[in-house]
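Incident review: delayed structure delivery

Summary: a single-chain prediction request sat in the queue longer than the usual turnaround. Root cause was a stuck worker, restarted by the on-call engineer. No data loss occurred. The affected request and its eventual output are reproduced below so the record is complete for anyone auditing the incident later.

Affected input:
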Amino acid sequence: MKNLSTLIRLIITLMVFYLIFKKAQLQKFSTLLSQIKIQLFILAIFFNFLAVVFQTWRWKFFLNDNSHFLMLLKIYLVSFFLGNFLPSGGLDVVRGYYISSDEKRFSEGFAVVVIDRLTGFIAVALLSILAIGIGFNLSLHMKRLILGAAAGLIIAMILSFNNFFYKTVRSAMLFVKIFNIGERFARFYDTYYDFRNSRTRVFIGILISFGVQFSYAISAFFAMRSIGLGYPLQRFLLFVPLINMVAMVPVTISGIGLREGGFVALFRSALGREGAILTSLLYYLSGVIVSLAGGIIYLSGKVK
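Output delivered after worker restart:
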């Protein structure tokens, strides 16, 4: 079943790639690559790494224990590396696994990973609403899509912290006895729900998430600048978080294809199809290069 799921995602990835590249002109790729400025691409790598540092800082903040920052950074880099070969969302599972020493700790650790990720989503939603509010020139359909997604995320977070919803869902899940799924979910939800009384921590987590999103956006911006193209940084601050969110939908390997499709949809008019695709690939490559540090740590066996 697992192999079948992986095969399906691989097929979807290849299909999306075909649709994206079908109308692209290879000569334009060659022209753009011939003028790449390595120093600007190195800046793209640096800001991608800075985003990982911000994410590690946010994760440590939510763990609220004595975990050493350097150890958490190593785990994050390893999960980042393994995430290159997993469906989107696999990174979070790897983090939950490494931070856990037993089954109970895994449920609690994974709850922290979820709240950590959720604050990132909320930051993306708020950035999107802000961008629309200050008058970015978006189509009515795009505005509705952004506002709908943002509202959905905020409502989901509020609902998940609602006392009646918590008790109802938790009680219902306890009836699921297969593989102790109900009990495991209850432990997970208990830890997650405890953040209801830590609104200041959640708020600070969202603020740190802005640093994450800005770092990724600046990384993509320098990826674009490295091939001699130009477009306002403000647009990257809006569009890149949205693209990152789309790339997390677990239907392709590591979001490949979805990310490129997002760049084409949102940047094609300014950068051209080839420029948008190449910007996306260089942005992704900058992340892969950062993740190689995690690969070295993983192969050395010195993760923790």
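Verification: Residues 28-300 form one domain.
Action items: add queue-age alerting; document worker restart procedure.
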